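As a next step, we paired sequence with structure tokens, yielding the entry below.
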Amino acid sequence: MGMTNPIVHLVDDDEDARKATARLLVTAGFEARTYATARDFLNASELEAPGCIVLDVRLPDLSGLELQLALAARGVPLPIVFVTGHGAIPDTVRAIQRGAVDFLTKPVPGDVLLAAIGRALAEDAASRTARARQQALRSRYDRLTPREREVFLHLISGQLNKQVAANLEITERTIKLHRANILQKLEVGSMAELARLAVDLGIDAAGPAS
């Protein structure tokens, strides 16, 4: 996760609850940022950094659920732990369906909140790792020439070199050269790894996923 400590963003309009929770977080060794409104939080600059959000459902401007949608629309992937003084079942279901890590009813015991935050931070770290890997794979794929991409699609469809050669109307020797270049550029050592990489990139024999 680099050198940056994860930030726990605490969004709650109840000042006493906000201060008490912030104390709990700092005591537990977390870096905490507090906000009284959804707008304050949306204006924060550290939304790219690793972390998570502890979010009250009832806020004076946007509700917690509306803020969840706004963050998704902006592509901010921080995991959310909801807390509420009014545990409405439909809210809980909606929040979880949209990817919330947990939905806790106030007063939340400190150990329960810290456990939920631990899960949220683990989820954030895992998704950041996955996104970084995806970007690395994509940048390798981008090294391929248009012709190599064409050969790549034929290869992952399970065709033999001579079948690809016949389909593309080039020699089998040329296909072997393309295949060697493709494996080298994609940094894979076998057709099995090549097929796995195609799956990870969302590319099937019909072409790249949009």
